[in-house]
Amino acid sequence: MSSSSWSYSSIKLFDQCPKKYQHLRVLKDVKQDEGEHLVYGNEVHKAAEEYVKNDVPIPEKFGYTKPVIDALKNKPGEKHCELKLGVKKEGDGYAPCKFFDKDVWLRTIVDLLIVDGSTGWIVDYKTGKNAKYADTKQLDVMAGAVFVHYPQLDTIKSALAYLVSKDFIKKTHEKENHKKYLNTFSWELDRLGSAVKSGVWNANSGPLCGWCPVTSCEHHRVR
Predict the structure, then answer these.
(1) How many whole angstroms from its chain centre is CA 220?
(2) In principle, which of 12, 126, 144, 171 could form an S-S bond with 182, CB 3.0–4.6 Å?
(3) Orientation angle between helical segments 8-16 and 137-149, nearest 10 degrees
(4) Residue 107: strand pairing partners
(5) Which residues are CB-neighbours of 108 under 8 A, at least 6 positions away?
(6) 101, exposed or middle or buried, with CB in 10 Å at 0-12, 13-18, 19+?
């Protein structure tokens, strides 16, 4: 990812620790190992995609997800799974572009988009055990990007779908506010831009430092 483009995950990484962001996304001299939770989450997402798109049965070990995914699969409308969207800046507005275009400003992946006339549904699957740390700002960014790519939509009903606890954290978005949604992280993006320009990436110390792959950091400690 270039310093001029961003995603929800990258801005959250920067917010967690600018120094970690520098090594993983700018210098790219450190890699983050995929943990069990990430691997498991990717498998669940793939199973949901194959079931909705190709009617491939959900593996038994993910059977607990079927009631939720069935409800989504049975909704009327055109369905798009693991939809990669790029948004670029154009004048004082925004325009659609491909995910890996050179002038892409925002990249986002929508787990499931359902388009039915002028109404859309966005679903982001979560494999966490509960919705305690749900962040609906992620839905705002997705909705903004979807409005840019699907101008026929007037309203988007979005949700973080917690497949284990069956919690649905819902939000409704309106087309007239799409610029506001795309500017949800404007303050954080300003901070990121300043770090890029100055070359100063201050490290944050916290409880996750023992799991950080940046072993050269002054705050790194062995678990």
Answers:
(1) 27
(2) 144
(3) 150
(4) 86
(5) 7, 8, 84, 85, 87, 141, 142, 145
(6) middle
Query: For residues 142 and 106, what is the distance between their CA atoms, to the nearest angstrom?
Result: 10
pLDDT tens readout for residues 106-160: 999 999 999 999 999 999 999 988 888 899 999 999 999 999 999 999 999 999 9
> The tokens of 145 are what?
């990007």
Q: What is the DSSP string of 148-187?
A: HH-TT-SEEEEEEEETTTTEEEEEEEEGGGHHHHHTTTHH
Q: Where are the domains of the chain?
A: 33-184
Structure tokens at 153: 């939509």
Rounded Cα–Cα distance for residues 4 and 6 (Å): 7
Q: Which two tokens stand for residue 172?
A: 């409704």
CATH number of 33-184: 3.40.1350
User: Residue 214's closest CA among 33, 34, 37?
Assistant: 33
**Pairing outcome for strands 155-162 and 119-126:** parallel
